[in-house]
Amino acid sequence: MSNSMITIISIIVPIFSLIIGAYYQKQRDRLLLEQETFFQKKRDNYFKVIEPIISMISNSKNSQEQGKVVSKILSNEYRKEVLSLSLYGNDEVVKAFNDMFQLIYDKEKYNENVSLLIPFLGKVLLEMRKELGNKNTKIDEFQILEFLIKDIKEMKSENFQKYKDIKRYLKYKK
């Protein structure tokens, strides 16, 4: 090979390498940005979907506030958020959310006893927590809500068997 050919190749190869590297870096950055945007949308959706349920539990003694929460849950806007959860949430989050709402829909089992809803809400929050990055969490359905409910330990001991029975019932119903 002539010296001029070696010189041209030694110039062209690094330039092509730079162009290919820049292209792959741009594609990688675009993919990371899309993933971050998707993650943020999912996180925002989770908060919008869970907020009325937390309000329901927090204001369980105030019937006027309960009415507002129920109206919000029945609104089209909320149903759109729940649909987004069904589309974007992982399987475990969707299953936990479905179990919680099956309990709400089944008035005979639920009997409007908000305390029975607590472990189901806790399960939803745990699954969201796992999906949003804390996969090795060691807390249970009740511990994740201790900051929110003053007498949750007593509720756990009072309703734990009912919770297990309802969980079994919901699985049987499917």
Could you characterize what this model shows?
The chain crosses the membrane at residues 6-24. Keywords: Membrane, Transmembrane, Transmembrane helix. The chain has 174 residues and is an all-alpha fold. It has one domain (3-173). The chain is built from seven helices and no strands. The chain has helices at 3-58, 63-74, 76-88, 91-105, 107-110, 118-131, 152-173. Helix 1 (3-58) packs antiparallel against helix 2, helix 1 (3-58) packs across helix 3 (76-88) and helix 1 (3-58) runs antiparallel to helix 6. The longest helix has 56 residues, at 3-58. 19% of the residues are buried. The model has no long low-confidence stretch (mean pLDDT 81).
Compute the number of structural domains: 1
Could you state the order of secondary-structure elements as H and E?
Answer: HHHHHHH
Termini separation (Å)?
75 Å
Overall residue-averaged pLDDT value: 81
Radius of gyration: 25 Å
Fraction of helical residues: over 70%
Low-confidence stretches: none
Number of helix segments? Answer: 7
Number of strands: 0
Largest sheet: none
Percentage of residues in strands: under 5%
- Structural class by SSE content: mainly alpha
Overall 3D shape: elongated
Transmembrane segments: 6-24
Keywords: Membrane, Transmembrane, Transmembrane helix
In brief:
Keywords: Membrane, Transmembrane, Transmembrane helix. The chain crosses the membrane at residues 6-24. The protein is mostly helical and 174 residues long.
Question: What features would you highlight for this structure?
Answer:
174 residues; elongated; mainly alpha; membrane; 7 helices
